[in-house]
Amino acid sequence: MDARQANLESKQWQLNFFSSEQAQQKRTLKQLEQIREFNEQAKMLGLARKDWNFYVVNVQGEFNYDTALQIIGQCKDSERAYYWPISMEISNLKKDGKSQASSSNSSKKLAGDVRLSVTGKFLARQK
Between β-strands 114-125 and 52-63, what pairing exists: parallel, antiparallel or unpaired? Predict the structure, then answer.
């Protein structure tokens, strides 16, 4: 009797396991179908990745405040392209009211007010 009970419990566990696996596969198939439908819609609307150009933005350096604001202001959506921000870091270079030299070997170069690093991408539709 114990062997049959153990066998029954083993078969019940297997049934539960395979039922769970089958349910997971159905969920995965449903998700894949949703992704396929989304891709088809994107293609119909001309939004497929191959229809877009990507332009990398990678600005790093020391700038005065006005130039830094201008750079930041240019990194936004426009009628021609969408901006996809990745990162932006700004740090103040002035200490005790004096600017630090921008590099030790170029003392002729004027130091900026801020150190700015902007990375991202512009996405523009191909014509």
Answer: antiparallel
Q: What pLDDT, in 10s, does the model give residues 64-82?
A: 999 999 999 999 998 889 9
For the entire predicted model, the pTM comes to 0.53
Across 28-67, b (16+ Cβ under 10 Å) vs e yields eeeeeeeeeeeeeeeeeeeeeeeeeeeeebebeebbeeee
**Residue 100 DSSP one-character state:** P
CB-CB neighbours of 93 under 10 Å: 16
Q: What is the H or E stretch that residue 3 is in?
A: helix 2-44
Residue 25 zone, left/alpha/beta (φ > 0; ψ -120 to 50; rest): alpha
Question: What is the C-alpha separation between 1 and 67, in angstroms, rounded?
Answer: 86
Per residue in 76-124, pLDDT tens? 998 889 999 999 999 988 765 554 444 444 444 456 789 999 999 999 9
